[in-house]
Amino acid sequence: MKITRSNLIFISTITLLFFNINLSIAEDIWQEDKNTYIKISPSQGVNNSHPFSLSNEAVSKILTSIHVKKSSKSTELLFSEEQITLLSNYLPIALSKAASNEDVIFALSQKKSSLGGLKTSTYYVSGSAFVSEGKLNILIGEHNKVANRAYEMAYDPTNQGIVEYDFNFGNRIKPKFGFDTPVSFTANGLTLANNNRNDWIVSELDVQPMPSMAKNTMMVSTNAQPTVIKASMQENEKSDDLVARFKQLEALKNANLISEEEYKMKREQLIDEL
Amino acid sequence: MKIKTFSKTCLSLAILSSFSLHSYADEEKYSWNISGWINEGLTYYDDGVGSDVAQLSDNGTTLGSRITLSGNYKLEEQGMDVGFEVIIEPLSGTPNFAGGGHQTPLLFANQDNLDTFNGGDVGLLGSSIYVGGDWGKLTIGLQSMPTDNIAVLADPSGTIWSGVSPLFRANGFFIRGVEEGSTNVAWGQFAQCLATPGLGIGIDCNGIYRNGVRYDLPAMGNVSVAVGYANDEIYDIAVKYSAEHEGIKTNLHAGYSVNKDGGSNVGGNSSSTLQFQAGLMHVSSGVFGVATYQMEEADDAIVGSGDDTDAYYFKAGIRKQFNSLGDSAFYAEYATYNDQYGMAHLDGVTGSELSQWGLAAEQYFGSRFLIYAKYENLSLSVDGSDAARSAYNSAKDLSLVQLGGTVFF
Q: B237, B242, B256: which to substitute to probe chain A, counting the most A Cβ within 10 Å?
């Protein structure tokens, strides 16, 4: 190949690019791709009660109790079943590793099909979580933000997953145009913060389901996911418990909180229980 | 003949029936999707001699309206996935000026304002299959090659449907004010690419879908690399870097391509194209900026014709939510396309500078819909023989005002 001015410039540039591959300051707790993750991120000027120990079950109970208005007659869970599983597994790990001036931020996806399965759209929920004064706080930045699949295919024609969306992770100062969909709860111990801000949920760490409320919500919700609620309320069922323990074990290993040997040993014990 | 057609119809119906009886979309391992966007706009032009309104559908080859069908099948045992992509686009119902094939409507828009410029045909933009795994991804077929759009889409603001680095909107308009005999010279004549002779878009010169093979290496942190080989002896490599650091989103793109068929519009026998684009955006304030550079060189160009060109494009503005509808964006842009005069060397032109500047406003409605308003101004100056300067330096500026909208699905 002939050495020309243009190819010399090109080679110099890409060499420089490789010197600084990752500049992100957020610490990854779990990441599936550029737009689906749970991270620890600096939160300036606050004093959270971190690090904090919280059980997976407590997080699951809280998250399965949060519903958002879907239409004038129905509600749906704020987080999907898969998102609740992820947050239940990784949020406790993140809170146990976070410092007092750090929040846990998350962006989680959910695929929804339409046109008889011919059209699949990806929707994101993003926000942040932190523990303060003995309560879990959840700030909702965006809900049901739809991915622009068409743009992704133009920018990233071979679908390498390099399109990165800008998510809003919520803010302690009320934003002018933030998430404002009405929120309801199916458990005692959950409230909206600061003059009923729909984007800021404050929860006791041990919430108790409100049977009548849960029942009503399920009756009016055409798209509620009863399996999630059931899973939360009947988490002593052995099969669910085992699955949760497998996922928890996997999460602990991924977060380097247990060694490879400990992981293998515990995994074998769980398999024996099957 | 009729029996053959009937047989084909029956066969097609049988295949379609089998698809409808067995819904692959319900299988977890198999997925397919329909996506795309439709863009429509209304343009007012003032070419210095006359003015009128021209309805322009589409917004250029890069981001022209399209319907994309894609599918994916996971081969779990082999650790691979395979898939396909077919892209259909509206085309002008009128052949191009050289009597060739139909192209995206915007490239034809001009003072003639023919109905058939606005689309009257449907064409295949892309059709490809791929195999992917931990080792990367191999794509074969009519597709976007690595350096396609490499200096176009690094804009982190995403305000690309109203303004990108290539010269699309004014491309087909005739330059007014030049001497009689040259009146049918279009603005795109002074934004001619060496890599793709006849393509007068200034930047993104290797930016057309080509039949080829593309290999995407596994992503390395925030860096992705792709290499390609396309008909006929076109090699390219592209690198993309994307990261956010201390609230500043940074996109850096670089691409290099060699086209053994390029440069023929200046009598050469090959060309190389180097492209860079850098985009920065301060996420919380929404302030952003984009800088673009392209350089092309042709080998063995005939004496008197330009054998290298360069082009620059800059954009700066703000994208932020100011109202309850969604984000609003305001920006200014400036581009200069230098020495891309192509065949005008036959008129004695030895240097040219086509300048473009614009102002735009966009309003987004969530992620599904946006509207925009844009003003653009184009001007031209040339160097060369007395005759060439006399012919072209009296060119009138072209002004365009476009109101458009894009729906994504």
A: B256
Size of interface A-B (CB pairs under 8 A): 128
| pLDDT 10s digits, B250-270 | 999 999 999 988 888 788 888
Both tokens of residue B335? 């581009």
For residue B171, give every residue at least 6 positions away whose Cβ sits within 8 Å of its Cβ, in sequence order, or none: B60, B106, B107, B109, B186, B187, B188, B191, B200, B201
DSSP state of B397: P
Beta strand pairing call for B223-230 and B210-216: antiparallel
CB nearest to A21's CB, from B153, B223, B255: B223
A155: nearest CA partner in chain B: B153
| Element of type H or E holding B408 | strand B398-408
3-state class (DSSP) for residue B257: strand
Tell me whether A113 touches chain B (CB under 8 Å).
yes
Res. A229 pLDDT band, cuts 50 70 90: very low
Distance from C-alpha of A129 to C-alpha of A170, rounded to nearest angstrom: 9
pLDDT above 70 for A110: yes
CB of B82 less than 8 A from some CB of A: no
pLDDT at B390: 87
For the record, the structure tokens of B25 come out as: 């979309």
Asked if A151 lies within 8 A of B243 by C-beta distance, the reply is no
For CA atoms B161, B283, B325, B328, the dihedral sign is negative
**Per-residue pLDDT reduced to its tens digit, B352-384:** 999 999 999 999 998 889 999 999 999 999 999
Q: Using an 8 Å CB-CB cutoff, list chain B residues near A119.
A: 33-35, 409
Among B379, B28, B390, smallest CA distance to B181 is for B390
Exposed/middle/buried for residue B17 (C-beta within 10 Å: 0-12, 13-18, 19+): exposed
The interface predicted TM-score of the complex, written ipTM, equals 0.79
Query: How many CB atoms lie under 10 A from the CB of residue B180?
Result: 6
pLDDT in tens, A44-89: 768 899 999 999 999 999 999 999 998 888 899 999 999 999 999 9
Are A162 and A33 in contact, with CB atoms under 8 Å apart?
Answer: no
Does B22 score more than 80 pLDDT?
A: no
The answer to whether the bond into B232 is cis (omega within 30° of 0) is yes
Residue A41 pLDDT > 80: yes
3-state SS string for B25-86: HHCCCEEEEEEEEEEEEEEEEECCCCEEEEEEECCHHHHCCEEEEEEEEEECCCCEEEEEEE
Q: Which of A1, A7, A117 sits opposite B26 (nearest CB)?
A: A117
- B143 and A157 within 8 Å at the Cβ level: the answer is yes
Residue (of B60, B161, B137) closest to B103 by Cα position:
B60
Contact A154 B283 (CB under 8 A): no
pLDDT at B307 over 80: yes
Closest-CA distance, A270 to chain B, in angstroms, reads: 25
Element (H, E) at B386: helix B386-392
Task: Say whether pLDDT at A18 is over 60.
Answer: no
* Four-residue CA torsion sign, A176, A178, A180, A186: negative
Residue B237: its chain A contacts at CB < 8 A? 10
Strand partners, A112: A121
Confirm or reject contact between A16 and chain B (CB < 8 A).
no
